[in-house]
User: Fold this.
Amino acid sequence: MHETVAHGHRPVLLDDVVELCATLPGALVVDGTLGRGGHAAALLERGVRLVGLDRDPDAIAAVRARLGPEVELHQAPFSRIPELLGERRADAVLLDLGVSSPQIDTASRGFSFRNDGPLDMRMDPTSGEPVSAWLEHVDDTELADVLFRLGEERQSRRIARAILAARPIHTTGQLADIVAKTIGRGDGRIHPATRTFQALRMVINDELGQLDAALRAIPELLAPGGRFVVIAFHSLEDRAVKQAFRTLAGEGGPVDFKGQPLTSPRFRLVERRARKGEERDPTNPRARSARLRALERLP
Ligand SMILES: C[S@@+](CC[C@H](N)C(=O)[O-])C[C@H]1O[C@@H](n2cnc3c(N)ncnc32)[C@H](O)[C@@H]1O
Assistant:
C-alpha cells in the first residue's frame, strides 16, 4: 500500500477494492483497467495472482515497468477478458472505468481542454479514429444526440451546429474555444467544454458498448464466491451496472404466489447500495463521483 501512495495519486476507493477483491492469497484477480497500476500493485501486495489489461499501450508499458516482467499483462480492451482467461475462472474482476490521470495530463493524447494537443482522445491510439476524424463525417443530429446523452449537455444542439460549422477541428484548444464561445463561461464551476469532451471521449472509445459487453460476459467467468467489482464515474454507467447486477441477483424476475423468485439466482449483491467515493474517500478529489458496486457468484 505504501508503494501505491508513493506514486502520487491514491487509486480511487483503494481499501474497498482490496477488501472486496483480495479475499484469499493466491486468488486469481483480473484488473481490466490497469491505468497506472495503483489497484493492481496493492492487490499484488496481498498475494493475489494478477491478470492485468488496459487498452492503452502507454499504460501497459508503465505498469510493466512498475510491476516487473512476471505479471501477466495484456494490451487489450476488457471486452476481451473471456478470450484471454480461456478456461480459467476468476476470484475477482475489477473495472475502474473511464480515463486515467496520465491520459488527461498528457497533451499529445488529446483528452484535455486545458493543455492544447491534437484532438484525438483514443485510449488505444493504434485503433479506431481520432475525434478530429469522427467529426468530419458525423451529422448534426447524431452529434447533438451524443452530446446530450453521454455529456448531459443541455445546449447540445447549439454546440453541435457550431462544431460542424467550424470543421475541420484539429486541436483540443480549438474545440474548447468553439464550445466556450457558443455557450459562454457558465457559472465558472466547470469549464464549459467539460461535458462536450466527456461525451466525445465516451463515443470515440465506445465506452458504453465495452461496459455492456463486460456486464454480459464477466459474471459467467467468476469462480464460485468470486466477485465482479465495478467503479463508475458516470450516471449512465452506474445505472447500467446497477440494473445488470440486480437482474443477475434475481431481482425483478418472476415470483411465486408467496413472492419468492421462481428460479434461484446464481449471484447476490454484496451490498444493495453503491459505495460512494465522496463518503468513503473524502480526501481524494478523483473519487468524488465514484460509485462502486459488487456482485458475488454464489457457491
Ligand atoms: C480510471 S483508470 C484506472 C486507474 C487504475 N485503477 C489505477 O489504480 O491506476 C482507467 C483505465 O482504464 C483503461 N480503460 C478504459 N476503458 C477500457 C476498456 N474498455 N478496456 C481496457 N482498458 C480500458 C483506460 O485506458 C485507463 O488506463
